[in-house]
Design a protein that fits this description.
The complex is a heterodimer of chains A (284) and B (917). By secondary structure, chain A is α+β, with helices and mostly antiparallel strands. Chain A folds into two domains: 115 residues, Uridine Diphospho-n-acetylenolpyruvylglucosamine Reductase, domain 3 (2-Layer Sandwich), CATH 3.30.465.10; 106 residues, 2-Layer Sandwich (Enolase-like, domain 1). Chain A contains ten helices and 14 strands. In chain A, strand 2, helix 2 and strand 3 form a beta-alpha-beta unit. With 917 residues, chain B is an alpha+beta fold. In chain B, strand 28 and strand 29 form a beta hairpin. Classes of the chains: A alpha+beta (284), B alpha+beta (917). The interface between A and B is large, with 61 and 78 residues. Bound molecules: flavin-adenine dinucleotide and FE2/S2 (inorganic) cluster (2 copies). The site of one FE2/S2 (inorganic) cluster (FES) has 13 residues of chain B, from loops.
């Protein structure tokens, strides 16, 4: 029965290699997941490891330490392409949750409704995994393999996320649909990242949708379709079922599958309009 | 350096002082603070991050202490509300502003609210409303509707003290407010000393199951620190509880078969260390799931399993009111409308899960738990324990919200049996999941309604048939079945009327009392169809209601004629300017939106409500006692449970006014079945009216006694001084020295004790009679915005006119209005309890601070001859008009007729798509 809180990644990896322990970071998924059962007593707290904290510039992009809290992401000085990620961070639970919850925890919990995943997909994040056998990297879309399933091998931790430099001048948006204003698990959410050309038309668009499939998905057909679309026309942009083909929503207590598909199209339009800075219809 | 801190020490600063301790692995910061460091001001509402009651500042940042391993506090600074309101300038300012705004009702959320607000003000000393909402977004409040809290934070540091000396009509601070904002208030789980034996109830994982208990002796023997297991065999008296004579049907422990998911079969008692390790899944019991009925339709099917002998067809009871000839009236009506309306379970979602503490003292049992009905609890426990009357003492803890559910016994029987069996003090706090699984709910309803009207707009026949899912046990189901037919007409003149309501058993949690006892469900059907019939008649919805509104001298559907005090027209008059403005605003907005292609639409909706105060045609006396000690201390024994609504303050205001002294002279002694007389239960919106009258009579009696002793007239003024009462009449002042009067056993030299019981008469077979001595009246208006593309409905503002007869304390009236509207809005738009699916505050959504728009409260005072100083009840009235007003506004905005609540975004969007077809 032990609680270990190593101060180095190496210490944590040794502890992990030594035997089964439950990894805990912000605890915001860990504790609620217990429901009314007692907490496991062998715990590995990774929040004291400096190497796992913070956001840093790398030669090719950005590194976000696994244990970076959502509130740190929200406050960080980052290019506009990260605005969708920040907006998602502001929607993770509440202020209290954002002050504790970590970005890697959000990914490892692998909820289909994890708000962090769609914006990280649009940022083409890679997950850095560490074990005492070494390090490896996986694209985020491969790391999360299903509902509550991740490609963590025994003895492995998520050490960081690596985000390549986004396209110059790219902007981003995030739209979350929930049944109340705060502290709500998404019925669906959409993250977008767009770059406009000199004429104000879309040069590149990346769109990812959460809570409408076991793992959040990019929408490549829609991304292709959007290229060349003038920004001013985004609000009324027609989205066909084929554009949403990667999605496979289900009926659950938050909403029906049909509703999700229907709403996602509108969320895409709104997130795009927000990213490029066109006012929504009827907002004036 | 290492790292293993299993037995290692954790050091941090708590409110500035260094602390060192050794948390058990997995122990939460909240547990350490509450149980090892005495910081009981940190509240536990959910243990899952959803309610924010446990908010503390760690290095200045608000976090949920319930989600933080205690070891993560190592080397950091932890601050709690107790120190913030004492030492921090923002904390002090907030404590004052929260009291001035009555922003703490039950107060269970207040520590979290103030703590989160301190963090905000440190970063942004003059925040705007949006910033306040963002900062308080993690703390749920079920009582206040948040607006008073927002106002308090907005004006922290420059908040004006509300006025008056506490006489009736003055908006004084709550008398118990300081304890709430300072975190000193002790709720159900705040009483037991650390180290007290803990209990855990073992519950059925199936809606219906046969079960067999395993070898309990071996189970106990092999587990260190487990002290006892209780089952049905350990119940010395009657293994049943309930609320209504003839319907005492819920076992403390099921005996062979459980009837709802979460029903108790056993309880385990052990030391805190043992209970921390104990996993209920290890308890030796085997389950055999049996076919169960969950819905009204399933329960009413001919082949349905029967829940209780003697309740054929699973029909528990029926209520019925009839007058005139409704079918003939409907047949001759010029226009008719009809509809079938449905609603689901609604959870009270008070932030304090049921909890308490019990111990044996001198052969008697003493229970301190959160409750709305201490004397009913006492009698219920005496029956369960097989003890004679007077063997049990109930000393209620503070109550962190009740709304009807804490009328029923919850933790008390287990605590009582635990203390009796072990001979030692025991504590029990339900987890959030338990409290949501097993405490009562609002009844799901299935209502058929037909209404007719003449071309001139007069109602012409109303026929109502409602089935209510009463769950596995009776609880307050009979009350719902009785109240609904009396109220289903709404506050209107309906000469030809028939209403029947049935309470139907299912294998669901018991449905019980929830603010309104079924009337809110009935009002949805009636008020929504009123809009439809008004439209058919091409009448303005407000004018249609006005035309048909009850008036003095007109009979109700029960044949009761009030010569005075009927205030519904006054409410509608008060609302009329806001109504016109809201309709115009919606029309202008929609015209713009239609022309620029935007997806949003606005609508204004209106609904009325009425509600009889006190028990339906049954005695429900309240007794209030007061005394003056030789030293001049004036003591008021105030047994009306204050569950946040403000009885402590309101009853004291009435008493002080009747006696003729400033409120500040009154020392309160709260509910305690040994020393405070029975003021009845806090339900049926009866405390201001019924206990208020007893307080008025007690104050008047004490005054008469003093005046008589001084031979002074009613015009004289009374002043309490040290050791004497001074009576002044004109220029003459007399001193009544108290030291010379003989003290009674309680030390009072002067005393009064008075009882009031509302004058009602039984209802006959057609429901005709005098069900209530008074009704309160209300009309709500809401402006909503519907995002037609996504289905979101966002109320923009409410205007609420309430006839309260006389506002004893306008600040507290406003608090009830805001809180009731928030609950009505939740019921309309987001709340649905689904057994097994939404049994926590993560999946069961109640409004957050960001969902609640501004509310304008219009206090209407149509005095009631029976009410103290004309006052009428209010608590339940508020949420009756809210949901139908929202549905009517949605229809105004979109044309969609919604017949079921909650109108979640997916249902709204589906209705919009359906209409577009
Ligand atoms: C009230 C509330 C509201 C919430 N609202 C939202 C919301 O709106 N949107 C949303 O997306 N989420 C929400 N969440 C979920 C949660 O806050 C996030 O998923 C959070 O980011 C999880 O991070 P954590 O550090 O708290 O994880 P923990 O609870 O500490 O850990 C979660 C899981 O991940 C594992 N883990 C954590 N870090 C690592 C690592 N570095 N390597 C390997 N395994 C690891 C743990 O072993 C555990 O199994 C909410 C939670 C609560 C309690
Ligand atoms: S008790 Fe911690 S958030 Fe509810
Ligand atoms: S005052 Fe907020 S929950 Fe009661």
């Amino acid at each position: 029965m032990a609680y270990s809180a190593p101060s180095t990644l190496q210490g944590a990896l040794s502890a992990l290699a030594a035997g089964p322990v439950a990894v805990i970071a912000g605890g915001t998924d860990f504790y609620p997941g217990l429901r009314d059962a007692p907490a496991p007593t062998d715990l590995l707290d990774i929040t004291g490891i400096a190497e796992l904290r913070g956001i840093a510039r790398t030669p090719t992009g950005w590194r976000i330490g696994a244990c970076t809290r959502w509130s740190e992401i929200v406050r960080a000085d980052l290019p506009p392409a990260f605005d969708g990620l920040k907006a998602a961070g502001r929607e993770v639970g509440s202020v209290q949750i954002q002050n504790a919850a970590t970005v890697a925890g959000n990914l490892c919990n692998a909820s289909p409704a994890a708000d962090g995943v769609p914006p990280l997909l649009t940022l083409e994040a890679e997950v850095e995994l560490a074990s005492d056998r070494g390090k490896r990297r996986l694209p985020l879309g491969e790391f999360i393999s299903g509902v509550r399933q991740v490609a963590l091998r025994p003895g492995e931790l998520v050490a960081a996320l690596h985000l390549p430099d986004p396209p110059a001048g790219a902007r981003a948006g995030f739209a979350k649909l929930g049944s109340r204003r705060y502290m709500v698990i998404s019925i669906a959410m959409v993250a977008v990242l767009v770059r406009l050309d000199g004429a104000g038309a879309i040069a590149e668009a990346r769109i990812a949708v959460g809570a409408c499939s076991p793992v959040a998905r990019r929408l490549p057909a829609l991304e292709v379709m959007l290229a060349g679309c003038p920004a001013a026309r985004l609000a009324g942009f027609d989205i066909a079922p084929a554009h949403l083909e990667p999605l496979a929503p289900i009926d659950d207590l938050r909403g029906t599958a049909a509703y999700r598909l229907d709403a996602v199209a509108e969320l895409c339009r709104r997130a795009l309009a927000e990213a490029v800075g066109v006012a929504e219809r009827g907002d004036g | 350096m290492d790292e293993r801190v299993a037995a290692a020490r954790t050091r941090f600063r708590l409110n500035g002082a260094p602390v060192t301790l050794s948390p058990v692995p997995g122990e939460r910061l909240s547990e350490v603070l509450r149980e090892r460091l005495g910081a009981r001001e940190v509240k536990i509402g959910c243990n899952a991050g959803d309610c924010g009651a446990c908010t503390v500042l760690v290095d200045g940042a608000p976090v949920c202490a319930c989600l933080m391993p205690a070891q993560q506090a190592e080397g950091r600074s932890v601050e709690t509300v107790a120190a913030l309101v004492r030492d921090d300038r923002h904390g002090r300012a907030l404590a004052a502003a929260f009291q001035n705004r009555a922003a703490a009702q039950c107060g269970i959320c207040t520590p979290g609210m103030i703590t989160a607000a301190v963090a905000l003000l440190r970063a942004d000393p003059v925040p705007d409303e949006a910033a306040i909402m963002d900062a308080l977004n993690g703390v749920l409040c079920r009582c206040t509707g948040y607006r008073a809290i927002i106002a308090a934070v907005l004006e922290a540091g420059r908040s004006p003290l509300p006025g008056g000396a506490g006489e009736v009509g003055s908006a004084v601070r709550r008398l118990d407010g300081a304890a709430k904002v300072e975190g000193r208030e002790a709720y159900g789980d705040d009483i037991a000393p650390p180290g007290t034996l803990e209990m855990r109830v073992i519950r059925s994982p199936h809606p219906r199951a046969r079960f067999a208990l395993g070898d309990l002796d071996t189970f106990l023997a092999v587990r260190d620190g487990l002290e006892a297991v209780l089952t049905a065999a350990d119940v010395p008296g009657r293994n049943a509880f309930g609320t209504i004579p003839g319907f005492i049907d819920q076992p403390v422990f099921a005996e062979a078969e459980t009837r709802f998911r979460g029903e108790a079969v056993a309880a385990v008692i052990g030391t805190p260390e043992a209970m921390r390790r104990f996993d209920p899944a290890d308890f030796p019991v085997t389950w055999t799931p049996l076919p169960a009925v969950a819905t009204l339709a399933e329960a009413l099917a001919p082949e349905a399993p029967q829940l209780h002998a003697g309740r054929a067809g699973n029909v528990m009871c029926e209520g019925f009111v009839e007058c005139g000839d409704p079918e003939a009236a409907l047949a001759r009506a010029d226009v008719t409308v009809e509809g079938r309306f449905r609603s689901g379970f609604v959870e009270h979602a008070y932030i304090e899960p049921d909890a308490g503490y019990a111990r044996m003292r001198d052969g008697r049992l003493e229970v301190q738990a959160c409750t709305q009905a201490p004397v009913m609890d006492r009698e219920g426990l005496e029956d369960i324990l097989g003890m004679e009357r007077g063997s049990v003492r109930i000393v209620p803890s503070a109550v962190g919200g009740g709304f009807g559910s804490k009328l029923d016994l919850s933790v008390q029987p287990y605590l009582a049996l635990g203390a009796l069996t072990t001979g030692r003090p025991v504590r029990l706090a339900y987890s959030r999941i338990e409290t949501m699984q097993v405490t009562t709910k609002r009844h799901p309803s299935d209502i058929l309604l037909r209404i007719g009207a003449r071309r001139d707009g007069r109602l012409c026949g109303l026929s109502f048939a409602g089935d209510f899912n009463t769950g596995a046990y009776a609880s307050w189901g009979p009350t719902v079945a009785n109240r609904v037919p009396v109220h289903a007409s709404g506050p209107y003149r309906v000469a030809d009327y028939r209403a029947e309501a049935r309470a139907i058993h299912t294998h669901c949690p018991p449905s019980g009392a929830f603010r309104g006892f079924g009337v809110p469900q009935a009002a949805i059907a009636q008020e929504v169809l009123f809009d439809e019939i008004a439209e058919k008649l091409d009448m303005d919805p407000l004018e249609f209601r006005y035309l048909n509104a009850l008036e003095n001298g007109l009979p109700t559907v029960c044949g009761q004629v009030f010569e005075q005090g009927v205030g519904i027209r006054a409410c509608l008059d008060a609302l009329r300017p806001a109504w016109t403005a809201a309709r115009d605003e919606a029309a202008a907005f929609n015209a713009r939106a239609a022309s620029d292609g935007g997806p949003r639409r606005k609508g204004a909706g209106l609904a009325c409500g009425w509600y009889g105060c006190g028990n339906t045609s049954l005695p429900n006396p309240s007794t209030i006692k007061a005394g003056i000690r030789a030293d001049g201390t004036l003591v008021l024994h105030q047994g009306a449970m204050d569950v946040g609504q403000g009885a402590n303050t309101v009853i004291a205001q009435i008493f002080a006014t009747a006696l003729g002294v400033p409120l500040g002279c009154v020392t309160l002694v709260g509910a305690d079945t040994d020393v405070t007389p029975d003021a009845g239960k806090t339900s049926a919106s009866r405390q201001t009216y019924v206990s208020g009258n007893a307080a008025r009579l007690a104050g008047a009696a004490l005054r008469a006694d003093i005046l008589m002793r001084c031979n002074a007239s009613e015009a004289a003024r009374i002043a309490l001084g040290a050791g004497a009462v001074e009576v002044t009449e004109g220029a003459r002042t007399q001193r009544l020295p108290l030291g010379r009067l003989p003290p009674d056993a309680e030390g009072y030299v002067l005393r009064a004790e008075e009882t009031y019981d509302p004058p009602t008469r039984p209802l006959d077979a057609s429901g005709q009679g005098v069900p209530y001595a008074q009704f309160g009246y209300a009309a709500h208006l809401v402006l909503v915005e519907v995002d037609t593309a996504l289905g979101h409905v966002r109320p923009q503002r409410f205007t609420a006119a309430h006839d309260v007869g006389r506002a004893i304390n306008p600040l507290l009236v406003e608090g009830q209005v805001h809180g009731g509207i928030a609950q009505g809005m939740g019921m309309a738009l987001m709340e649905e309890y689904l057994p097994g699916l939404t049994e926590n505050l993560h999946d069961y959504l109640i409004p957050t601070v960001g969902d609640m728009p501004p509310v304008e409260t219009l206090i209407v005072e149509e005095p009631d001859a029976h009410g103290p100083y004309g006052a009428k009840g209010l608590g339940e009235h508020v949420l009756i008009p809210t949901a139908p007003a929202i549905l009517n506004a949605i229809r105004h905005a979109t044309g969609c007729r919604l017949r079921a609540v909650p109108v979640t975004p997916d249902r709204m969007r589906a209705a919009i798509l359906e209409r577009q077809k």
